[in-house]
Amino acid sequence: MSSVAFELAAVLALILANGFFAMAEMALVASRKARLDALAEAGSRRAKACLILLAQPEAFLSTVQIGITLAGVLGSAYGGATLAPALAAALADMPRLAPYAETLSLACVVVPIAFLTLILGELVPKRLALARPEPLALIAAPVMTGLLLLCRPAAWFLSLTTRGVLRLLGLGGQAGPSVTEEDIRGLLLEGRRHGVIEDAEHDIMERLLRLADRPLGVIMTHRSRADWLDVAQDEETLLEKLLASPHTRFPVCRGDFTDVLGVVRAKDVLAGRIRDGRLDVAAHTAPAHFLPETMRGLDLLAAFRDTPGLKLALVVDEYGDVVGVVTAADVFADMVGDLAGLGGPAEAAIARRADGSLLVDAATPMDEVAAALALPRPWPDEFASGTLAGFVLEQLGHIPALGESFSAHETVFEVVDMDGRRIDRVLVVPPSEEEEGA
Prior knowledge:
Layout: H1 3-30, H2 33-41, H3 45-55, H4 57-92, H5 101-131, H6 133-150, H7 152-168, H8 181-193, H9 199-211, H10 216-219, E1 221-222, E2 229-230, H11 235-244, E3 249-254, E4 256-265, H12 266-276, E5 290-292, H13 297-306, E6 312-316, E7 322-327, H14 328-336, E8 350-352, E9 358-361, H15 366-372, H16 381-384, H17 388-396, E10 405-408, E11 411-419, E12 422-429, H18 433-437
Parallel strand pairs: 2-3, 5-6
Antiparallel strand pairs: 1-7, 3-4, 6-7, 8-9, 9-12, 10-11, 11-12
Helix pairs in contact: 1-4, 1-5, 1-6, 2-3, 3-6, 4-5, 4-7, 5-6, 8-9
Organism: Solidesulfovibrio magneticus str. Maddingley MBC34
Keywords: CBS domain, Cell membrane, Membrane, Repeat, Transmembrane, Transmembrane helix
GO molecular function: flavin adenine dinucleotide binding
């Protein structure tokens, strides 16, 4: 082999070495840890090596950077020192090019080396690593493990220096959480866009994520809308309520919610009427279960799961007053949306009109309104919890009149239906596309 061919082969080998390090770095970083864990549990030594490398990112990345830097510097230096003089000698024999022989030869060597380094040493290996991260990570792991041991002193020094610089910048070298809730939401949205996750699946998973932060005061049915039985009423009125309601359990009160006697099952009352010939609600009333309105959705789910026989609970505020009723069906509806037969509202909580505006039940949680408006995250604090009615009252500072409106976050909110002093429905008009582009 001629000296020029050997030198070309050496430069190409250094470029490919650069590509290997770039591929190894990207493949390991892009690999799914769950997949590597499964392979390691199945006995794969290479997968275990990958996990060991990922467990010490500073040392691993330092080793990769040492390899990339050495390969790049040596490739350019070797090419410039060996190939350039040979090319310069050939150009010197050309009278017109002789004055520029050294400059031209250096450019003719460095530019192709830089181009090949970008293509074969960076872009192609990284694209391959992103396309098949786990298989390529398994290939690279043994080599990188050996190099990590070989370069440990240098890698340790680089890691120490890096941490020192980070401390000077006030970062302290502390890494944030590897996966955040927003990362999960982003993956779900990406999966829906590519057809991997169906719209209904995406909606349910989004609702589950919101449930964790949603207070019980938003999930419950407010006492003004709740079905309940008053023992002071006559049997005929109580029977009509039992037969007209889709619910199977009812709070039992005397006069109003300030005097709660307990909870009763409709089938027990009706069975007693068939057996005894009279409707005796008080005789079948069981003690009520009370929950604070500040309880979060996941804690509520755990309460229904862990408390035997609990299907309906009364919600109390900080003063101990009953403010609403919550059932297991309410939690289920909060996770999957209102379903017929669960006592949900007959009308959709959010109805999109032809002009793009939304007609929204005022009891709808604000996070659902924000999702329907497709507001970019992170949402404003007032959109994170509470209901639309609460948001309207907070913005206006008084009980609104029918037709009263205001603007917030470039969106118009108009009260279109009132039930006495209670806000019933609100028209939400998002900014038009023309306004957004202005």
